[in-house]
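thread: overnight batch results

M.L. [08:02]
morning all. the overnight job finished for the chain we discussed friday. pasting input first so we're all looking at the same thing
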Amino acid sequence: MTTDRERKRLAEVQGQVVAALVAGGEVPAGFDPERMRVQASSLIAKRRAIVARIRPDAAAAAGADLNAEFAAYARSRPTPPPGYRADADDFAAWLRDRGRMPDPPPPERRWWSRWRAPS
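M.L. [08:03]
and the structure it wrote out:
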């Protein structure tokens, strides 16, 4: 049977593992630092590939520097945003803030958007 104290300690270590993998935190005692580094790099590569599929404009704006730009973006976030769409939009904004991506064009006004139903 697991005690409350053991559960609390396990939760602390799990938090440290997550921080080491996604936020560049310290590797907890008992874990292989090299394996943790490889796994963290793998997670960033997975995020980068998904973000590039969701926002090809951001990937194109980063160009040949996509790997380095996304790694720097990921390191700048202690916690990834909730969901890949938010991650992709945040990365695009991050590139825009650095002058790597133009501002988005204003939304087009459609002919039907001016019509209003009678009150």
